Design the sequence.
């Protein structure tokens, strides 16, 4: 019943819209503004479901986590107590927090750097014409599309200290004398970084490749005639063209690597050698679901959010020119 | 002239070598997973490792289906991802239509706000989401999971659908309207057929995102019979002795659907508009 009336309403309003041009001639401006107001109304009604879901499922929870960070709250029981900024003071003096921040910066810093370098290099290669290009492009993107759990079990198996194929090769080629304990305390951060680069650089590749395809070839032909080397062509033609998208990609990758949870958590699960890759998101998760301190967990999420906001503003300030292009 | 030819040849050689290396680094881990999943336990742990199994066996898959809850997880994954796609696509198709076809004050502000939420990471949403879900008593339900996935997917599906509707000339609808069709009819007969490739591709992106999720399921779902694949498979690691053959066969079973979907959308991906499409 309701649907029919909406339909009728829509139908009627469309007729109004339809006759706008005629009505200007026939009945003057009054009915025109009426038509526009109806259009506004339909516009708001149709965007409402999406807007309401985003408000209720993203913006409200994020706002609620600020309130939650001021409470002492058990994750499973309903008791809660307002403690003001106590959670933040606690974290300020908590060595675990500082070490997780440091580990998070190390992890995201290295992975972002190499993702960008590898992603841009691979995009340049896959932008050339060669036989089998389409297939290679598809294969290279695949690791980005599989579930993280699959990427993690693949790498845990490849890097297994006793039966892993990586150690087998390293030993067979004589690179090392004893098997490396890739997932032990000393090397787990390195393994995690390698795995994350493998998993996420296709995103950079894809974004850059899409932009490279739109650069007019004439730009390069002129430079070739002038005898510019490949490196000079990259610096003077390609780089200025991809600067805008590079700005966006670095921003997105930084946000997502700094807040990366599933890859890091599945690799170490926070305990044992996993302590050496306990980054900020993992620590926030553990406070909430290992120690059941939802207030502290929320405070960590808020701190993470604040760091991101500050860094994003700084980033936009530093690269104002690129931000305009992007 | 000759030097020029050598230069050109070595350039081609470098290009093919680099392309081969790129293809190998991406595919070898998957090849290794497939190989391991068909090996009997004795061969899984053999040194030196065999790249093609000497003795191909389906035993790992058989055990996966009979001795674990894999099929239940699989069903849950399909169910939850499917519902997420339905809800997300309905809301985002209507919303994107609104953002491209109607003029109203604040439209671009709403669009900008939606793009901003694209940057919010799951870890920032999931903790308050979990507490709120407990408060209204929907934790540990698939309903909560569908809502959570929708919150995660909606900003980018809306953005993609908006880009898609923008490419459909508005004049086509106007022509239909002039011909006497009403707006609903014009949408169904003119806009939808043209938008269909975009709707399908966006649906698959959404499906993959939901299919791949770990964090929301880990936090929101506690009962074993409600778990989805990523969480269910992670639990296989928690047995005393890690059964790599079994785990690799589970990995295969999760990857195959992802691979099928990937093959259908990869041309959209490479064409470029989907560059920012998948979050993570």
Sequence:
């Amino acid at each position: 019943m309701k649907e029919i009336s909406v339909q009728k309403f829509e139908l009627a309003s469309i007729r109004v819209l339809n006759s706008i041009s005629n009505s200007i001639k026939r009945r003057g401006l009054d009915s025109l503004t009426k038509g526009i107001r109806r259009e506004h109304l339909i516009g708001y009604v149709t965007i409402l479901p999406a807007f309401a879901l985003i408000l209720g499922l993203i913006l409200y929870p994020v706002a609620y986590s600020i309130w939650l960070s001021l409470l002492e709250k058990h994750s499973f029981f309903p008791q809660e107590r307002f403690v003001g900024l106590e959670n933040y003071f606690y974290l300020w003096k908590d060595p675990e927090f500082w070490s997780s921040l440091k580990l998070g910066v190390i992890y995201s810093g290295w992975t972002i750097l190499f993702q960008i370098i590898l992603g841009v290099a691979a995009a340049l290669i896959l932008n050339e014409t060669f036989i089998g290009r389409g297939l290679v492009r598809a294969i290279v993107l695949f690791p980005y599309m599989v579930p993280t759990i699959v990427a993690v079990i693949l790498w845990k198996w490849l890097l297994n200290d006793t039966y892993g194929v990586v150690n087998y090769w390293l030993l067979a080629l004589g690179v090392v004398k004893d098997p490396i304990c890739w997932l032990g305390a000393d090397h787990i951060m390195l393994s995690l970084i390698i795995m994350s680069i493998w998993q996420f650089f296709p995103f950079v590749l894809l974004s850059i490749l899409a932009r490279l395809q739109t650069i007019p070839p004439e730009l390069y032909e002129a430079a070739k005639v002038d005898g510019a080397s490949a490196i000079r062509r990259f610096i003077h033609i390609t780089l200025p063209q991809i600067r805008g998208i590079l700005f966006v990609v670095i921003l997105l990758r930084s946000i997502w690597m700094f807040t990366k949870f599933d890859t890091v958590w599945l690799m170490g699960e926070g305990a044992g050698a996993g302590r050496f890759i306990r980054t900020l998101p993992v620590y926030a998760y553990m406070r909430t679901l290992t120690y059941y301190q939802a207030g502290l967990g929320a405070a960590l999420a808020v701190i993470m959010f604040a760091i991101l906001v500050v860094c994003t503003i700084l980033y936009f300030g530093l690269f104002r020119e690129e931000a305009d292009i992007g | 002239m000759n030097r020029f030819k050598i230069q050109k040849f070595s350039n081609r050689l470098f290009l093919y070598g680099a392309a081969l290396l790129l293809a190998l680094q991406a595919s070898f881990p998957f090849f290794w997973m497939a190989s391991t999943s068909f090996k009997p336990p004795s061969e899984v742990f053999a040194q030196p490792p065999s790249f093609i199994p000497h003795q191909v066996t389906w035993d790992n898959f058989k055990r996966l289906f009979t001795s674990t809850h894999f099929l239940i997880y699989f069903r849950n994954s399909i169910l939850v991802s499917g519902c997420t796609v339905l809800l997300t696509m309905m809301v985002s198709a209507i919303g994107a239509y609104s953002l491209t076809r109607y003029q109203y004050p604040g439209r671009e502000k709403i669009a900008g706000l939606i793009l901003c939420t694209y940057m919010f990471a799951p870890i920032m949403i999931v903790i308050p989401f979990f507490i709120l879900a407990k408060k209204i008593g929907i934790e540990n339900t698939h309903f909560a999971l569908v809502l959570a996935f929708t919150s995660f997917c909606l900003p980018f599906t809306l953005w993609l659908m908006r880009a898609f509707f923008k490419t459909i000339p508005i004049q086509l609808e106007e022509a239909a309207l002039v011909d006497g069709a009403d707006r609903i009819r014009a949408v169904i007969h003119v806009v939808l057929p043209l938008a269909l490739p975009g709707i399908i591709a966006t649906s698959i992106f959404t499906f993959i995102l939901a299919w791949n999720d770990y964090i929301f399921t880990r936090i929101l779902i506690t009962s074993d019979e409600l778990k989805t694949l990523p969480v269910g498979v992670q639990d296989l690691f928690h047995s005393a002795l890690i059964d790599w053959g079994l785990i690799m066969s589970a990995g295969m079973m999760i990857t195959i659907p992802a691979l099928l979907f990937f093959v259908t959308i990869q041309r959209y991906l490479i064409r470029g508009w989907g560059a920012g499409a998948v979050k993570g």
About this structure: The two ends of chain B are 50 Å apart (CA to CA). Chain B touches chain A through 98 residues (CB under 8 Å).
